[in-house]
Structure formats: C-alpha cells, structure tokens
Amino acid sequence: MSFFDKIFGGKNNNPERKSFWKNIESEEDLNKAIESSYQHRIAIFKHSTRCFISKTVLNNFEKEIDNLDEKMDLYYLDLLEHRPISNKISEDLGIRHESPQLIIIEDGKVINSASHEDISISHIK
C-alpha cells in the first residue's frame, strides 16, 4: 500500500467496520430496517467509501457510538455499491441525499438527520 493510499483510503473499498452495523444491501434490507423503526429508533449511516471526509466522519462516529446506552439498530449503507437504495431512501422518506449522512428514523419517519461534520451521537439521543 502506498503512502497516499494509507492517508486517503486507497483502493480498499471495504474497510473493516465495527460489528454493531447492520448492512443495507437491498431494498428488502431497507424495508426491514424501516419496519424495525416501529419497535425502536434506528439510524442509517450513508457512507461513500472513496471520500476522505466520509471516512473520517464514520471513524469519529464509531468512536462515539461505543458510549451509546440506548437500544438502537445501526444500519450502514455503502453509497458506491448501492446508490439505487440511497435514492430510494431519499424518495420514500422525503430527505435530500447527502454524503456522509446520518438519518434517524422512528415509526417509519425521519425524525432527525445530519451530514458531514455535523454527524454525532447527539443526533441519536
């Protein structure tokens, strides 16, 4: 791996993620996530694996999330691999696409969202 790959993420599009993430890789996964929002709040993190800012925000968020004591399912969406699903989220939930983006959903509706450096655990609590 070159020096620039180490700094900017290089060609590794599937970096190791924390075990608490549930992947959204299909419309069925998205539908299950939305359905679970009727039992408890969920969060969807939309991430661009080639964006340095997105990678930094994701890493910072994962560090913060270790302190979350609330019951919440955390979903991860790789925007580059699953852009049609990201578009469906925007259309179905009436929220503008951004990347990176954290979307909090309760009872099938967006109750909060944040993008870029504004993403933090405070949007969940």
UniProtKB/TrEMBL annotation:
Pfam families: BrxC. This is Bacillithiol system redox-active protein YtxJ. The gene is ytxJ. It comes from the Bacteria.
